[in-house]
Amino acid sequence: MRYGVARAPALSGGASVRNEANPKVKNLLPEPFVDDLVFPEGPRWRGGSLWLSDMHGGTVLRFDGKGGRTRVLEVPNQPSGLGFLPDGRLLVVSMKDRRLLRLDAEGPVVVADLSALAPGDLNDMVVDECGRAYVGNFGFDGSRGEAPCTTCMALVEPGGAARVVATDLAFPNGTVIFPGGRKLVVAETMAARLTAFDVEEDGALVGRRVFADLPGRVPDGIALDAQGAIWVSCFTTDEFLRVREGGEITHRIAVDGRRAVACMLGGEQRRTLFLLTAETTPEDLAQGISRGFVERTHVEIAGAGLP
Q1: How far lies 92's CA from each of 28, 161, 259, in Å?
Q2: pLDDT digits (tens, 9 = 90+) for 125-143
Q3: Domain with residues 16-298, CATH architecture
Q4: In degrees rounded to 5, what are phi and psi of residue 158?
Q5: What does the angle CA 88 – CA 134 – CA 178 come to, to the nearest 5 degrees?
Q6: Fewest beta carbons within 10 Å, which of 99, 250, 276, 292?
Q7: How far apart are CA 288 and CA 282, in angstroms?
Q8: Quick one: average pLDDT of 231-253?
Q9: What 3-state class would DSSP assign to 9?
C-alpha cells in the first residue's frame, strides 16, 4: 500500500451545475484532495488539519491543507470514529476488539471495552464538549451470515464508565451534536433515515423522533451546518446530499462509481466540505479490497456543532 502525498489544487470555490431532474436541488462539483487511501472513515477537522481513519489501512492519519500527511496511530483492529477530549487528546474507536482508545503522550490506552454492550463491531462515534463519547455498532456479523438486526448506542464517560443510552437502532452510523449540546442526530443506515434525540444533562438520550426519512438511500457519515441542515453520505447511490429537517434536499454532489462514505465541514470558516469515497463493493470490502479518496468543495453554509 502506497502512502505518497497527493498535492491538492487550491480550492476554487463551489462550482455547481444545474440539476435538470429537480431544479430546486443545487449540484456541486468536487475537486481532488487525496487519492491513495484504502477505505477512509471518521473525518474530523481539528487544529487546521483534516483527521481521518483509514479503516482497512489500519491507521489514523492527519492531513494539512495541501494533502501532506502524518501517521498519527496504528490501529490493528481497524479504526473508525474519532473524537477529541476537552484537553485535546484523541479518542479512537477500535472496531474489531470493540474498544475505545485514547492517545496519550506515552501511546494508546484503553478507555473502555464495550464488548459486553455492543453485539457487533464498533462503528462511528461523536464526542461531546464534556468528553463523553457516543459510540454505535453494527449489531450483527454479516461475515458469519448473521441476519441484520437492531442494536444500541453506548455512552462512554471520560473515565471509562459505559452504559447504553439508545436501543432499537438499525445500524447506527454517523452522528452529530448540535450547538449547545442538547440535540443529537444519528444516521440509521439500514432504516434509511436520520433520527434525532434530545440530550439530557447526564448524557441520556430521550425524545426520539425522525429528523429526515431518506427512502431508497443508505445514509452513512454525516456533517451538520449552521442552518441545522445535515450533509449525508449516501453509500449505495454514490452521492452526498444536504438535507433539512423534514427531508427536503437542497444540494447534491454526485461521485458516480464511488461509494459515498463520510463527510466533514472544515477548512477556513468551516466552509470546505471534505468528501470521503471508495471504489469497492461489499464483497471486496469484506476482504479489505478498496481504493479510497478524499475530495472537497466549497459550500455557502459553514459547519456547526460536533464533530
Answers
A1: 31, 16, 23
A2: 999 999 999 999 999 876 6
A3: 6 Propeller (2.120)
A4: -55, -30
A5: 80
A6: 250
A7: 10
A8: 98
A9: coil
Mean pLDDT of the chain: 93
Q: Is 272 left (phi over 0), alpha (psi -120 to 50) or beta?
A: beta
Taking CA 304 as the corner, what is the angle to CA 243 and CA 193, rounded to the nearest 5 degrees? 30
Q: Are 12 and 31 a contacting pair, CB within 8 Å?
A: yes
Q: Is 282 helix (H, G, I), strand (E, B) or coil?
A: helix
Rounded-to-10 torsion of CA 300, 6, 3, 291: 60
Which residue has cell 482508545? 101
> Strands 151-156 and 162-169: what pairing?
antiparallel
- The set of cell numbers assigned to 114 is 464495550
Q: What is the pLDDT of residue 148?
A: 84
CA-CA-CA-CA torsion for 247, 191, 172, 115, nearest 10 degrees? 170
Alpha-carbon distance 58 to 78, whole Å?
Answer: 5
CB 209 within 8 A of CB 248: no
Which residue, among 80, 1, 2, 38, has the nearest Cα to 290 in the 3D structure? 38
Q: Which residue has the higher pLDDT, 283 or 10?
A: 283
- The position carrying cell 433539512 is 244
Distance (Å, whole) CA 183 – CA 80: 23
Neighbours of 183 (CB within 10 A): 18
Residue 237 C-alpha cell reads as: 447511490
pLDDT, tens only, 278-306: 999 888 888 889 999 999 999 999 999 99
**57 three-state secondary structure:** helix
The answer for residues whose C-beta is within 8 angstroms of residue 17's C-beta and 6 or more apart is 27, 29
**Considering Cα of 172, then 176, then 181, then 182, what sign does the dihedral take?**
negative
Phi-psi region of 160 (alpha: psi -120 to 50; beta: other; left: phi over 0): left
